[in-house]
Fold:
Amino acid sequence: MKKICVYCASSPTIKPIFFDATETLAKLFVEHDIELVFGGGARGLMGKLADTVIKHRGKIKGIMPQFMNEVEWAHKGVTDFEFTETMHQRKALFLEGIDGLVALPGGCGTLEELLEAITLKRLGQFTKPIVILNTDNYYQPLKDMLNKCVDEDFMQKSHLDMWRFVDEPEHVIDALKNSPSWNAGAIKFANQ
Ligand code: AMP
Structure:
């Protein structure tokens, strides 16, 4: 596992527990020599992620649409950046060449990115592990919703293999490594 994409909050006003979990995870990624890709923001959990990786001399790349760069949302300490024209192009780039992705707590942007990745995985268009860090049980409602999708037959039981929820940052890397394998053949049972 060499490169992981992290989706996370832009809000700076969330509880300290979310920043602490992000810092712990960022340090672990650096210790394991794993390069990160993220939204490139300077605030919220994105800022904490990048600050921590830079402080510990890890590798991190920002991918951001140019219109966000123009309003100076880009993290000033991140030297590796790719700017896109649209949000859609940015989301596509997030998923290119990565070995897995992690969603930390976030708002509508994080949820949208995460659910798009899960949707692509269901269709066999994205096949890498997806781990959701459920710090402070923030993601319990999402976990319930995804289980409900399966319970009510909107998705198959086998789709539960597409993601893993973990409660602690220390469990993220193992969850990425031990996620069930997935392949393009998922299209065959996407809507059975
Ligand atoms: P959210 O989880 O709603 O905070 O959204 C995180 C995502 O929202 C990022 O990946 C960006 O698409 C976008 N975003 C919102 N605010 C910012 C910001 N200040 N800097 C960078 N990206 C932002």
In short: The CA atoms of residues 150 and 156 lie 6 Å apart. The chain has seven helices and seven strands. Residues 16-31 form the longest helix (16 residues). The longest strand covers residues 60-65.
